[in-house]
Amino acid sequence: MKFTKESLRLYAVTDRQWLKNKSLPEAVEEAIKGGVTFVQLREKNTDYEGMKKIAIEVKAVTDRYNIPFVINDNVMLCKEIDADGVHVGADDMSVSEARKILGNDKIIGGTARTLERAIQAYNEGADYLGIGAVFTTTTKEGTTHMTKDLANKINSAVPIPTVAIGGINSENVSSLKGYGVSGIAVVSAIFAQENITDACIKLKNLSESTFS
How far apart are the two ends of the chain, measured CA to CA in Å? Predict the structure, then answer.
């Protein structure tokens, strides 16, 4: 599995609460068939053993398709199941601490809502940044708005790729043109859809025409 900025083009963030009569591994496979290029496991209100079971099942799918698979926040689980990496939020373990535990061979992503945080995460060893929220989102409370101007300042300040997050769907992807990001991170616009594969095909096409 090779990680490049193209890996971030269509970045799926899981949330089982949106699923309609299917398991998370099934939904992830449908998403990959539709063009998802990166998968982050983020499941709330699940204990360690429950997360481990889900992570192993999802990793089996991402491994089969050679898609990067990272776990949200849980560095120890990432290490135990040998996931491709971890994504740490602004209020979680620091990027530098995660890097110390996981070593240089794992992907580490960080969340950046400010220029200062972006520079800090890069200096601590982040491989990519999730910047947002670019739009109003129902999946995360208390997020600040990421303007085009701030996104460009971040992308000028750090040489690692960025992915836009927060409230992104097929109706608003195109308005992110000029943000300088490599792709989009999406939750409900993938996992809440009746036909996940078709939804991802549409999002991938929009993302490629917007950011290429």
Answer: 22
Q: Rounded to 5 degrees, what are φ and ψ at 2?
A: -110, 130
Query: What global pTM score does this model have?
Result: 0.95
Summarize pLDDT for 21-37 with one digit per residue, the tens.
999 999 999 999 999 99
Tell me the pLDDT tens digit for each residue of 39-96. Answer: 999 998 999 999 999 999 999 999 999 999 999 999 999 999 999 999 998 788 999 9
Query: Could you give the 3-state DSSP secondary structure of residue 64?
Result: helix
Q: How far is residue 204's CA from residue 59's CA, in Å, rounded to a whole number?
A: 22
15 token code pair: 């949330």
The one-letter code for the residue type at 45 is N
Give the separation between CA 177 and CA 173, rounded to whole angstroms: 8
Give residues with Cβ within 8 angstroms of 119, minimum separation 6: 157, 158
